[in-house]
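Technical appendix A lists one of the benchmark inputs used to test multi-chain prediction within the project. The record comprises three sequence entries:
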Amino acid sequence: MLPEAFYARPAEVVAPALLGQTLVVTVGSVQAQQDTNSERSARTHQRDKRQLPAGRYRVRIVETEAYVGTHDLACHASKGRTPRTEVMFGAAGLVYVYLIYGMYHMLNIVTGQVGEGQAVLIRAVEPLEPPTLPVNTNGPGKLCRALDIDKRHNGRSLHRSLHKSLRGSLQSEALHLCAGTPPRRIITTPRIGIDYAGDWKDAPLRFFDADSAYVSKQRKQ
DNA sequence: CCTGTGATCGTCT
DNA sequence: GACGATCACAGGG
């Protein structure tokens, strides 16, 4: 498990450093499975198809973006402390998850010092264990949908929670990061989908593994 | 290859 | 009441 000091650095440092690290996600506790199934079956069952079955998955982070604090106009923290952004102002290593466009969740990790409002967005992952997946994880919305990451994870710590689960049981909110294999080559570009951010829209704060086939389908280079 | 648009709802003004 | 840190699909060149 990566130490807390790993995250307590500026987001523009942590974001490229996260490439190649291993994210361990446990999908579908009994409780969560019942909840999501009842909600969805009442409307549409379209989403089950894009979501992975219950189990533990290990994936490799291959694309990230840094949101560097309250002065960064693309960063949610630039709007100040609100109920939604409160987690961003917390300790490094907290998980920040929010809903966008009414239908996609975004997975972030808080970085820097308390009060700075920094985070790194996880934009794409590639499967490690199992080595292939029946759904796509090459995009920030797609990976959260596949791994059933949503508001339940918001505010949780990447550090605690591992040893608290009952032996053998699945803990739905569990998210962990372990050391992995860094990319051989990293490409840096402006961030995606933040054209509203004025002077900050062209800041080179998106990072991806140049050799991964699982990078999101945006932009040229 | 590219640009445009609809879906859908929590959040903040 | 407006607007997204997205995605999938449609249509044109």
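The longest strand of chain A covers residues 55-67. Residues 79, 82-84, 98-103 of chain A lie near DNA strand B (CB under 10 Å from a C1'). Comparable benchmark entries are summarised in Table A2.
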